[in-house]
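Two quick folds needed for the group meeting slides. Do the first one here.
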Amino acid sequence: MHMPHTNGMAAQEPSVEQALALLSVGDAERAASLLRNLLREDASDAEAWHAMACVARAGGDAQSAVALAGRAIGLRPEGHFHITLAHALLEQGHAEPARAAANVAVMTTPRDPRAHEAMAAVLEAQNRMRDAEQALRTALKLRPLDCEKHLSLAAFLARTGQVAEAVRLSEKAIRLAPEAVFAHNQHAVLLERAGRMREAEPFFATVAKAFPQDAAALANYGAALFATGAFEKARDVLQQSAHRVPDAPETRTNLGLVQMALGALDEAEQELGAALALRQQDARLAVNYGTVLADLGRRREAEALFRQVENWPTSEQDRARARFNLSTVLLAQGRLEEGWQAFEARQTLLPSGVFLGHTEGLPQWDGIDTGGHPVALYAEQGLGDTLQFIRYVEPALERAPLLLAVPDALRALVARMEPVRTGRVTLLQKGQTAQAVGAVACCSLLSLPARLGLNAPYPWRQLVSLPDAEGDHLAKGHYEASAHKSFGGEKKPQPRAKPLRVGLCWAGNPGYRFDRRRSMNPACLAPLAEVPGVAFQSLQRGQAEADLPFPAVVLPEGDMLSTARLIAGLDVVVTVDTVIAHLAGLLGKPVWLLNRFGGDWRWADGSIGQGAEGQEESLWYPSLRLFSQSTYGEGNGPWEQPVKAVAEALRKLVKM
């Protein structure tokens, strides 16, 4: 007698479990067919009717799911049947009946975390957030080692603004299930929401590795790479994503911003323009496109676009971004009166709490005479901005006594400034609040031009007194010894017996998104080594000995006062657009600025005037001379021409 051939496996009878297994892998059609067969054989199978309700829910048919779950409950009122009924009712918008169903589930199966999760969903829909959170925490207590329970609570906490705790919970979820790709994805999304996109990169990388053909996974990974400054890799990943789904505006936007950061402005304009075409009334995309237009020198188009966005029905933040970017276009053109007013939009964009500390609780000053009551001025953003705008204490003193709060790195330097040194301005000490010494209002240094109603740059004058080994007087001898007509000097010095002392700074803060275009590889400075009779002093913080392609004295540790003393002994400073340019300009030291194409508004045409001998002169710093890129592009190429021009200018200076 021959046994039937079974391939070593006994034939399985169709079951509800098989149907649910098919549903779990997305095969709802086969699951429904199997369940219909089961119900034809036994119409009293409550589990089969419940499974059919699950199939209906998965297909988006909540109405059928309610009817099917109700039939299952009529046959046998199981707790998990009520869970499905609660979800289906909620999906139909029937929150109170859904709550009743969830309550039955909780009462009959209190140890089933799914019942508490259903109740949480209903309570959240009813805006009972505390109760919803408690229900999710109960579900987690019932399954403390379940990765998904941690993620469910984390997602809820993120939705209710408790992002920090949500991140901690998702971290624990990953520790519980390190191979769970969905946990890595949610953790990365939460880190992004918390403003920690750089930390999200390895988690988005895990997701992209698991789903290398998924455009969304690639887009998220590319955005995270962009945040870390890995621009070339970010571009490659985002291009892969855009190739798979070319009509995704977020991907095209991130790709455009990466191209912009790399200096590929034409490609950036194409990508950002394509993103805006895909979503034409998106204010954020419009502002990004306007930004690249401004960088390309197409300021009229950028201005028109920013003004349009201001009138769109969008968020206050988006309008503020448009208005702030409009301000930089206006300021670059020298349209200062309107520009300063638009510049105030930055206040809406700054992180909350940036003004706290010395000035906490004080109202903003409107620029009106206070009748002798003190006003507290504070440094708002970077050190360079503080040094540029501190000149505005002079006109502000005409309207109120002033207190001044500055970062620690600038405190000793600011103490040497004439208004502070002579007691006309009081420098607030660490831990000292402005209110405690009588201040009635406060104002950012950057807001002073707008509050005072000024329509031109306040003129530069020598503000800082630097002590030397002999005593306390203006350290300006080296400036006089190296002055010539390019800096407004009147007479040529005698042939120099010592090498020309040149300070070098080639990089700014790497945390700035577009720092790659502003800063340079120190190898770009190699042509300067060919100039005879020059000794170089590094003004670059954190410089390694091998950074420069030629010898230079390393910058010693210290604050801005110590750097100022060092600069005072130099003949000329060569720098990119960073705090060193402002510090040298503030001291009246000859400063040659290596300026990127489409550079900052303060070095644009609107800030250039005419000197006493007809030469171009910065309205902010008369001793500053621009060496700007004539073209844009990636890598070191755009720096070749301005660096060669600096080398030639140094040769002429050495010969004088």
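Then this one, please, same format:
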Amino acid sequence: MPIHLTRRGFIAGSTGLLVLHPFSARAQANQAHLRLMETTDLHVHVFPYDYYADKPIDTVGLSRTASLIAAIRAEATNSILLDNGDFLQGNPMGDYIAYERGMDQGQMHPIIAAMNTLGFDGSTLGNHEFNYGLTFLMNAVAGANFPIVSANVAKSAGATPREDETLVPPYVILDRTLTDGAGATHPIRIGIIGFVPPQIMNWDAKHLEGNVTARDIVATAKAWVPQIREDGADIVVALCHSGMGDPNAVEGAENAAIALAGIEGIDAILTGHSHLVFPGPDFDGMAGVDLAAGTINGKPGVMAGFWGSHMGLVDLLLERDGTSWRIVSHTSEARPISQRNEDRSVSALVEDAPEVLAAAQAEHDATLDYVRRAVGKTKAPLHSYFALVADDPSVQIVSIAQSWYITQMLAGTEYADLPLLSAAAPFKAGGRGGPEYYTDVPVGDVAIKNVADLYLYPNTVRAVVVTGAEVKDWLERSAGIFNQITPGGADQTLINPDFPSYNFDVMDGVTYRIDLSQPSKFDKDGAVVDATASRIVDLAWNGAPVDPAQRFVVATNNYRAGGGGAFPGADGTTVIFEAPDTNRDVIVRYIVEQGTINPAADANWGFAALPGTTVLFDTGPGGAKYLSDVKGVQIEAAGDGADGFARFRITL
């Protein structure tokens, strides 16, 4: 059954000289301004720190978001602070607590301690709350000084959602006092209900199967919202840890915020999960949302980015009608903690809140020790010096980890029996980054911060289904990084410097050769320039030529799967799985589980033979020590390149 909480008034904010929100400035007698403040997808980012890169950054951190709170509260006569889930997992501090320190009964989780410091009024569960298992989750949330709700996760399911025994309360009603425009106080009852994607049953099956069930978001809301109204709520706020989705309800949808907002009885919706910002250009042109009005299916709503990047604000002008309240006007915004300047640098817009830092200082210090020491070992050096010319261990480990993860995620689905390929590209491969801009982790210990060398970006894992013909064209697109080579010519330049290395996808699970004598089918931007060109030869799966009509699952990242780089078969329409995890986290988990990894290159791809032909390739001088490890390529030192690079000769 729901919990009813009573607290005298709202938490007092600063009374500094700030401009009041128009609703507070203009409210009359029997009218009151209520501000809903949202954080979402904090992912344990208490500190403004990138633990993978092991350096401070200005774009993340609850300690920064927190410094907005006093001023934001002072702009409004009445306010409450709510979190939208995904707070327990998502950076190395979360992993340190889960894998090393532990989360026993009675222990305090650092993100919960930080949230307690700020006086949160409520939260819901996100999908990542389940990543470490139910015991960890329940021990962690037991320390919260605020209610945590989720309506669609049940320990035992009844005939209807309202007959479920939910894991945590499905909703709460906050009994509060509002001050109106004339200074008089009035009671208000605010219902808070939470939802999580039902896909948690797939994403964390090993923890959840047989222990809980997850219902459809919209169907669950239709059952519970009338109950909240019957229980006396004046307004109902949905904490929707889900992306926007289709305006029409789709059974079992991961992203259902728009459809959820359409349910009668819900007055405002706080959403997240997608790590985007609403209102904002991320949703320009999307059906069911109105950027100017800040509405989702006609209801005021907000999505506050991720990792503490924004504070979401929904402002409601309420009018008292007898003994109840109704919304007469509303505004929405997502207020950032940093800004990107014209020179692409980032400037902080706020300082840290010292009390928030203090709440997690000990765990932050322990996390720094954790990321700086080994979490596994590698039998092969992880370097990217030759990633553009040969199968490479730094790309290999990414591909292996992606395949390992997607195999688990697709188990039991309609795609489980399709051949699985994995596409990955080198990120640190010299170029404009200079001769030192390469991954270089020697044989031996691998620390968590080394993963930043392996995978620079906070992408998330995706899987797409493509045909054999699209696999070939995907690789043709990648092969555009190479200049066309004249057979029999000596010391020709191999790499097109205008082609970014992150668009040079290597694909594990198939074998193939690249015929450099042929023209490229695609230009550097992915446009077709020669429809008849064919550089990819001997493309085979399981020892047999790839059938153009055969279907394959390809593990990749959200950038590529969504159309980044303009790769055939990857335009956003072929996605079959959107992971809740970053590629970095998957690599770390794989290393932790394996203990010792051996990502030696297997030479599944290479160049087709061109007798009597040599090409030149520049890379970092540090690559010389790994020259004998390069597989499938006849390569030798060829002196110095320009600007500090070393030059190597490849005999084709």
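Slide caption for protein two: Residues 1-17 have pLDDT under 50 and may be disordered.
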